[in-house]
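task queued by scheduler; priority normal; single chain, no ligands, no partner chains; default sampling; output format set to structure tokens
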Amino acid sequence: MLDASVAELFRPVLGADAPITVRAYDGSVSEPATGTPTATVDVRSETALAYLAGSPNSLGLARAFVSGHLDVDGDLYDALTAVSELAISDVSPATLATMALRLAPIRLRHRRLGPPPEEHRQRGLMHSKSRDAEAIAHHYDVSNRFYELVLGPSMAYTCAAYPDETSSLEEAQFAKHALVADKLALKPGMRMLDVGCGWGQMSMHAAEHHGVQVLGVTLSRDQALWAQKEVARRGLSDLVEIRHADYRDVTETGFDAVSSIGLTEHIGRSQLRTYFSFLYSKLRPGGRLLNHCITRPDDHHRAHADPFIDRYVFPDGELLPIGHLVSRMNAAGFEIRHEENLREHYSKTLKAWSANLEANWDECVAEAGEGRARVWKLYMPACAVGFDLNNIQLHQVLGVKLDDRGQSGFPLRPAY
């Protein structure tokens, strides 16, 4: 038996002052010390406490949520904002020790309890081709229909660029692709390499709106199959090739432009110099690279993802400070010409995806399973909170490979 109610025991995990009500399966309720509650955390069964006892951090809470033994009544974004990213990292060691002692009997009773089946553990050498392929398959080879429901018609799984506050998600994704095209100065007859091309939307945008010959490369089998069919449907097969392959296996060179949208997060700190050097080698003199990726705001934030994100969402993902990324691009030979932070845009993008998930919940569950849908239900608002609190950022960096005379080919004042 516990020597405290379940709700009282759970309160320190969320923070004593967090405006959250805790309601538990034993009938207990814990109200915040001050303020009006913004949401209610519902501890539905002892299994939720068993997950917390096994991993007294965000991973334990995520396991309880993904498995359905813990839920939130109310807006998840508001709840996560209220507890400032599940403030268990700020719980004192003494409190954690007391909780561990109280939860020990529950942990013993559930000692054979494994994590939800949606959890993924990586195997093999870090960032080897086989391990990277496994990580990409875990996240992206879920169900193309599931992603259609969440991402909407644009089928772009990266930060949009909202022209204004009232723009739709589709308008903002088009604006993002147009912005990348402008920065790369795409023109008819050019050749572009699109690494980590996803469902091929940037590749098709470059071909359809700028007459560019594009090679798009993705490690996801499902993405490649979907994109290949869409390229054919749009009548772009003479301009766009979508290849299911590791970007490191691209042998072609002499590209006028390289688009890297949402791939660098999967590369890892140790591989960055090689990554940017490889992309540099693919460009002709005067060719441009646009690198678009999630970053940390400074060196004080850890590079490795939160345990929940690492196990359930993006295995082996690393987010690095923008200064480090710019330095690595520069060291590979690129002259840096432009940089901007779009973190507010990513928060809006994630909120739009979350709204799509909620609006299509039953079909999303039918496509991917309830556990996988609950992973997305948790991680997207959690990331939106991260962008809004400036714990993570989204940067676009534009670099150029100078010619032998040091010429960049840039106008004195680019339009973007």
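post-processing summary
- The radius of gyration is 23 Å.
- The mean pLDDT is 91.
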